[in-house]
Amino acid sequence: MNEGKVYLIGAGPGDPKLITVKGLECIKEADCIVYDRLASPRLLSYARKDAELIFVGKSPERHVLKQEEINELLVKLSLDGKTVARLKGGDPFVFGRGGEEAEVLREHQIPFEVVPGITSAIAVPAYAGIPVTHRDYTSTFTIITGHEDPLKDDSRIEWPCLAGRSGTLVFLMGMENLPLIVGQLLKHGKDPGTPVGVIRWGTRPEQQTVTGTLADIEVKVQEVGLTSPAIIIVGEVVQLRGKLSWFEDKPLFGKRIVVTRSREQASQLSEEISRLGGEVLEFPTITIAEPDDYGPLDQAIQEISDYQWLIFTSVNGVQHFFKRFRDLGRDIRELYNLRLSAIGPATERALAEKGFLVDYVPQEFRAEAIVEGLKTRIKPGDRVLLPRADIARALLPQELRKLGAHVTEVDVYRTVKEKSSVRELLNYLKENKISVVTFTSSSTVVNFVEMLGKDNLSLLEGVVIACIGPITAQTAQEYGLKVEIQAEEYTIPGLVKAILAYYH
């Protein structure tokens, strides 16, 4: 029997980028991921495709599994020889019951490792602009469970001691007990004017912060309808929020934005959105695959010296053409006599990275502009090689032939519909938690509609549709989608700029 192992991983407070490097490595390695409610769903996208995902989340309203059942599950999975990533919100040893799980694993002689996480006790106040310590205010802070009933006879919380301290008090999971917590602190002599902050869903787009004092915080929380999960921070440092707030000031804060590009291409758009404070939901609708038949491409490469022009209409076209060129053992010096054209700056950069200077890049990044610019450059009889996707528009080769060029179109890659799970996206749409859906090509639109299902398109009511350019926007409109954002520059930076302009 293979020996299993369990990693007790702290997933951090909610922002998926706050996972540790080691935690992410363990997620990627695991055969099975056992995760709870407070761990970011985006972390699951790093799991192996064959990994088993088991939700054991707990909330004040319901428990999917009791703690004893979770312990038994971890034991069973590891005894079956599986490497298990037990993904817990925050840090596993800060009110995460990780210690109990570790004890059970040790009793069964199951190997385990603890991977600490960034606790919400520190990270959530930081995202709200509240440092838990500050030399002008306090040098101590205390983390207290807010889940325990403050009025029970056998309480382990020393309320007189807490009320008498001048340091910062951080209560985790205390939203339901807020009136009792406030009552106990006041009862034992805490100044009613002591600043208090309550932060819900800290580090996430839904982050909501209410500040007040022990005297009025209950009323203020009720007025805005704040519910769990939230942390309560008590102390003079709360006053610094007005000066140090930063996360909620980001231009895309509070926006959850769907990225429909392929996994291979999503990173640039996702990173830009995250940098500006938005949360990305990656829902790849396409994947890039090899062509069904390499014959036409191989033949064109064999005759490469007979061509005068090589035109690329995407970064993917560049990458796949040169990969095949290399795989066939050809020498890049064979291309010395060719003139090059690229549809836009990203494609131009991809060629520059391979050591090529481009002869022509249109000001407007689409096929029509390429044709217009090449009218005075391509001569009748010139041979043009056009390596691109299998579903590319027919306009470019048609118009080049009208100029007298002999055009050879070859598929260097295929655009295939991705097999993404639609469940998470549907849940977010039903809860009105999606702000924007982005489309970067017509194929992303077509596949998105097919994957979502036409019966569910009504869920997009109130969701902003953002397209990278007019061709993509036209496709979206043909499917009945109302396009509210269209980039003026048909690039990823141009799309991000257009989203920013829409909201500001």
TrEMBL record:
Domain Tetrapyrrole biosynthesis uroporphyrinogen III synthase: 267-496
Superkingdom of this protein's organism: Bacteria
EC category: transferase
InterPro entries named among the record's database cross-references: 4pyrrol_Mease (IPR000878), 4pyrrol_Methylase_sf (IPR035996), 4pyrrol_syn_uPrphyn_synt_sf (IPR036108), 4pyrrol_synth_uPrphyn_synth (IPR003754), 4pyrrole_Mease_sub1 (IPR014777), 4pyrrole_Mease_sub2 (IPR014776), CobA/CysG_C (IPR006366), Siro_Cobalamin_biosynth (IPR050161)
Gene Ontology molecular-function annotations: uroporphyrin-III C-methyltransferase activity; uroporphyrinogen-III synthase activity
Annotated EC: 2.1.1.107
Record Gene3D superfamilies: 3.40.50.10090, Cobalt-precorrin-4 Transmethylase, Domain 1 (3.40.1010.10), Methyltransferase, Cobalt-precorrin-4 Transmethylase, Domain 2 (3.30.950.10)
Tetrapyrrole methylase domain span: 5-217
One example of a Gene Ontology biological process annotation: methylation
Keywords for the protein's UniProt record, in alphabetical order: Methyltransferase, Porphyrin biosynthesis, S-adenosyl-L-methionine, Transferase
A matching Pfam family: TP_methylase
PANTHER family: S-ADENOSYL-L-METHIONINE-DEPENDENT UROPORPHYRINOGEN III METHYLTRANSFERASE, CHLOROPLASTIC (PTHR45790:SF3), SIROHEME SYNTHASE-RELATED (PTHR45790)
Record-stated family: Belongs to the precorrin methyltransferase family.
Protein name: uroporphyrinogen-III C-methyltransferase
Gene name of this polypeptide: cobA
